[in-house]
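note to self — DONT lose this again. spent like an hour looking for the file last time. sequence + predicted structure for the chain T wanted, 410 res
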Amino acid sequence: MKIIDVSTVLLTGPNSNDPFVQKQRTVRSAAFIEIHTDSDLVGIGETYTGYHAPEIVPAIVDFFKPILVGLDEAAIDPRELWERMYYCANFWSRVGVGVNVLAGIEGALWDLRGKMEGRAVHELLGPLAHERLPCYATGCSTPKPWSQFRHKLDIYREAGFNAMKVATGWMNEEDGSSFWADDPQAWIDVETEKLEIARDHAGSDFVMCLDAHMSNDGARYGAEWDAETATRVLAALEPYNLFFFEEPLNYNDVDGYAAVSGATAVPVAGGEGLTTVGEFERYARRGAPDIAQPDAAYMGTTALIEIARLYGEQGKRIATHAWSAGAGVMQNIHASFVCPNTAILEIPPLGGPLHTEVWADGFRFENGEILPPQAPGLGVRLTDEIKNRFPFEPHSGEWNPVPGGKGEPR
């Protein structure tokens, strides 16, 4: 058996079956990578770049394609091939989008290797470190009126989740307005009210996480915290037993993350926008963040495991980021199960068809927890029927709207 082709499959489908997520964005794009062989085996992976900039992906896949085509079964070693491809692109892709796309190619190689051996990918990556893992539903923005926030809590609890993450601030479901303030006390007032409602409505055992989404450079538009603001807000939230507080600062502010991490009883999480082990090392050397959030569909499966090891040596945990479509989520699940310090998994709740139909029977969710996948490879499928039903729509990737920009996200 040998590799005969490597191709990109771009698709666009409904974003979610979650009514709240769907209100914010109706569609999602996805970039899957297929590695074809001269047998009936096809490796399937996904790069998270397909959610943001899908049009970029095919050209980068084609760049790496000659390295893979013609390889026989014995040469299909995902770790070795990742190193070879990364070396070839190191001048232009030491970090960033090239690495992101490599993550999808690596995922497809692991899927193919698992199918070749009839084993689940996590069995190839290392010994199983968990019999099951807790997960949380990502709920995106916090809706107002507060009755809508309570309804969101009910939806996720009824779907079987015991944990939820929502954004800081709020978005008004009735008029589309959203919250921003320069005064830290205003943030404290909003977040404490929100958490009081959550605790009163869902109980003290329901796990809550908050996400400030400060990773992007928003200072130009007055939409960014500093370490002092973040520390004040986190200190005020200590009584509410948050599992973590995500991205309180811009990723360029390593000093700020070092100052905020460990400064309060609220664990600081971050890292979904970092693309390599080297980028994480800059933070780890400063003891930040308290919980690292690598993404196997963004930086790669092997890199995620290495980052978990790096933070594990410091007695710290990881909580994988996973907002891609079905294959990318599975790449994170498999990697997480071999990392002893995995604390919790992110799951897109009530996923749309680019989640559920790609997962097939590979995704195992029970009582608010994820069970180790059992199917060979990643446990995903990408049929012609799926491809035909969800054709790619150009410019369907998510982007960050800025003042003066054109249009709004779909």
